[in-house]
Write a structure and sequence with these properties.
single chain; MetI-like fold; mainly alpha
């Protein structure tokens, strides 16, 4: 019996090694096929170093006279990210329940998964342009773009978390005659709540970073002033914005990491 078990383990390890080798070969082939399209030219990069240094030199010293504008636009960016994330969470929960294969029938879960995939396929910048052209300039189209774009990811993450719940708990609740709400409350949410919070915090952090580019198309936030100052060749003010962004991103990263550690 031990010999049979050892043989199965060896066969399993051999299969894993073959799969790993096939994956590495496939990755190498795809990389080689992608190289011509990428047009890598390190000599061109080396020639551009003086121009990069000149660009960075124009940003020194930072112009601190725009700190009021910087703080106001940074707060606006945080508000866009937070409100957009909150709305996406509200919309993602029902979609995730419909997409989870252990909670919804196949005729409902599969089309919902297709819908979430279609939402993820639309670039954020395209959503921002769409909402700016339909509802006008300002933070509101940025919130709408963040909300729609986040639903595709959070809906998928939440559905996968629901599917990873222990089926034994659900079977016990079913045998006890639990209702759908009781199955969700005691059989799903109690098991996957830390995963849901972790995914939500990750998306909030990502939304703040992505909301920076929304200003480039007039959707409000600090990105609007970055493109405004760059077009006016006011690089010292761009430096002030960049430093502020670095500080905010670090704070958001540390806060998110700390909260995720507390949930483990």
């Amino acid at each position: 019996m031990k010999s049979s078990l050892a043989q199965r383990l060896k066969a399993h390890h051999r299969q894993r090694r073959v799969q790993t080798a096939v994956f590495l070969v496939l990755f190498a082939v795809l990389f080689l096929l992608a190289l011509p399209g990428a047009e890598l030219d390190f000599s061109k990069f080396a020639d551009s170093l003086p121009r990069m240094a000149d660009f960075l030199g124009r940003m020194a010293p930072p112009d601190m006279s725009v700190m009021t504008t910087v703080l106001t636009s940074t707060l606006e960016t945080l508000q866009i990210a937070f409100v957009g994330t909150f709305l996406s969470v509200v919309l993602s929960f029902p979609l995730a329940l419909m997409a989870a294969t252990n909670l919804a029938p196949a005729w409902l879960s599969q089309p919902t998964r297709w819908l979430l995939g279609a939402i993820r396929a639309v670039p954020l910048i395209l959503l921002a342009l769409f909402f700016v052209s339909t509802v006008g300039l300002g933070p509101f189209p940025g919130v709408l773009a963040i909300t729609v774009h986040s639903v595709g990811m959070l809906g998928k993450f939440y559905a996968e978390a629901f599917e990873n719940a222990d089926p034994g708990v659900l079977e016990a609740l079913d045998s006890a005659g639990a209702t759908l709400l009781q199955r969700l409350r005691f059989g799903i949410f109690t098991q996957v709540a830390p995963d849901l919070v972790r995914d939500t915090l990750f998306r909030l952090e990502l939304n703040f970073r992505e909301s920076l580019i929304l200003g480039l198309v007039g959707a409000g936030g600090i990105g609007f002033y970055i493109q405004l100052y760059i077009r006016a060749f006011q690089y010292e003010r761009v430096a002030t914005l960049t430093i502020t962004l670095l500080v905010i991103v670090i704070i958001v990263e540390l806060t998110s990491t700390r909260l995720r550690q507390m949930l483990r």
